[in-house]
Request: fold
Amino acid sequence: MKNKVLRNMLIPGIVAVAAVIVPAILIEMNVIDGYTAQIITLGGINAIMAISVNVISGITGQLSLGQAGFQALGAYAVILLTVNCHIPLPISIILSGLIAAFFGFLIGFPTLKLEGDYLAIVTLAFGEIIRIFLVNLKDVTGGPNGKQFSTIFTTSLDHGAMISYLAIIGTLVLIIILLQNFLRSTYGRAILAVREDSIAAKSNGIGVFKYKMTGFVIASFIAGIGGALYAPFIGFIKPDLASFNNSINHLIYVVLGGMGSVTGSVVAAFVLTGLQEVLRFLKDYRLLIYPLILIFVMLFRPQGLLGMKELSFVKTWDKLMGLFKKKAAAKIEVKGEDNE
Amino acid sequence: MDTFLKQLINGLSLGSIYALIALGYTMVYGIVKLINFAHGDVMMIGAYTGYFVLKAFGATPFGLFMAFIASMVMCAILSLVIERCAYRPLRNAPRLNSLITAIAVELILQNLMRVLPFVGPNPREFPTMPSKVFTLRTAAYPEGLISISNIQLIVIIASAVLMIVLNYVINYTKTGKAMRAVSHDMGASSLMGVSVNRTIAITFVIGSVLAGAGGVLYASAYPQIDPTMGYIPGLKAFVAAVLGGIGSVPGAMIGGVMLGVIETMAKAYLSSQYADAISYSILIIILLVKPAGLLGKKTNVKV
Reply:
C-alpha cells in the first residue's frame, strides 16, 4: 500500500521535474533555438490561462467570458509593484495573483448569483470595463500605448530564454500539481458536485454560492499569475490584453482540450500556440485556416480532444509495464512451447 | 437648441441601429439558444455591400435604397450558408460548441474580408449623402426647438419601419406563428407539422436582413468601414439584447434604444471616455435587479 502511494507520487514527480529541467538545459545549450523556446514559453502562458478558464468554466461550470480582464490586472499590477514599489519580481508576481483574486472576489459577489448566459455576459462586461479603465487611467497605466517592462526575462540575452522557460513552465507545473490535489480534496469534490447538479448539491448541504465563489477566486488568481508572468516575458503590455477576443482565445483552448480536463486544455494550449506559428507560411490565409480547424474539431470531435478525461502518467506507466509483462510472458510461453 | 433634446435624438438614432442588430441576436437566441457572435460581422458584410453599391450608383437617395436592398439580400444569402454549413450540424451538440463555432465563423468572415483583394484590411470612407439639417422652429424658440440631420432621420424612420414589419411578420403571419411555436417548444412543434429546419433558417435570414440594414445605417451615421467594424456595435447590440431580456423581441427593441440613449447621455453629461464603462455598469446593475433582463421571462427551476 505504502509502496503504491510512493509510486503514485514518484512517477508524476519525475515527469514534472523532467518537463521543467530538460528543455531548460537544452535551451541553455542552444539545442533548442531562441525562437522555438519563445513559442514553447508562450504556450506555457497560454496553458496557464487555459487552466484558469477551465477552473471556472469546466470545473465550476460557470461560463466566464472575461478571464482576460484578470490577466490584464495581473500584468499591470506586476509592473506597478516592481517599478513603483520596488518589490522584487517573484514576490510581486504572487502579489499580483492575489490582487487579481481579490478583484475576482469583489466581482464574484454580485455576478455569481446569475446563471448561464447572463453570468457570461456580465463577466464579458467586467472585462470590457477593466479594459476601458486601463485605456483611460493614463497616469498609472500609460493609456492605449501600453507600458514597457524590462526585467531579467528580456534584458539578459544569454540566459533570458532559459530563465523565462524555467519560471513560466515551472509555475505551470506547480499550478497543475496543486490543482490536481485540490480537485481531490473535499473542496474540489464539492465544486464538482455543484457543476454536476447544483440543486442536488444544495440539498446535500453544500453551499452552492460559497463553492462557486471559491472556484471563481482560484480562477482569477491563476489568471492574475498568468498575466504577471506574461508582462515580464513579453516586456510590453497594452490594454488590449483585457479584450474580449483574448478571453475567447483562452476559452477556445479549453473547449478544444475538453471542458473540465486540466491536462487536455494544457495540451490544447500548447498545440494551438504552436499551430499558429506553423501556419505562418500561409501568410494572411493562416487567419482563415485557424477558424476552419476550429469548426472541424467542433463538428467531428464535439467533446474536445480529451473530453472530461485526464492524461495520467501513472496509468500510462501501468499500461506500459503491463504491455512489457505481456510481451515477456508471451516470449516465455513461446520458449516453453519450443522446448516441448 | 436644448442640448438634452439634441442628445436624445442622437441617442435615438444610435439606439435604433443597436435595436436592429439586437433583434437578430435575440431572435436566434430565442429559437436555438445560441449566442450568434458572427452577427456583428454579418452586419459588417452588409456595410461593405452597401459601400460597393453606393460607389456604383453614387450617394443619392436611389443609391441608398439600392444599397439597402443589396445588403439585405447579401446578408440573407450569407446567413443561409452559415446556418446550413456551421450551425445546423451542431444543433444537438453542447451549447458551448455552437458558441465556439459562432466565434470561428466570426473569425472567418473578418479574415476573409481582410484577405479578399478588393476589400483589404484598411479602413475606407463610406460614401454618404451631403448632410442636411432640418430644424423645427416655433414662436417661443426662434433659433429652433429641435433639429435633426437627414441621416438621423433616415436611420430612425428606416429602423422604425423595419421593426413594424418585423412585428407584423412575427405576430400576424403563419411563418411568425411557426417561429413562435419553435422557440416555445421545438419538439412539440415538429410533431404538429412545423418544419423546424425551415423555420430556424427563416429566423436566421430575418435577423441577418435586419443586420444588413443596420450595417448600412451604421456606416451612414459613422462613415468609416473596415473588416473589424462589426465588433463594437455587435457587442453593444448583444448587451442591448441581454438588457431587454434575451429571447424577447420587444425587449431587444427597448434595450437597443435604451442603450443608445444611455450611451449618448453618458458621453454628453458624465465623461466621454468612460461612456462605455457606464453603459456596461448599467447593464450589470439591471441584471442584478432583474436577472432575466427587462422583459425576459423568469424561468423557475423545477427539481
Q: What stands out?
A: The longest strand of chain A covers residues 147-148. The first helix of chain A runs from residue 2 to 28.
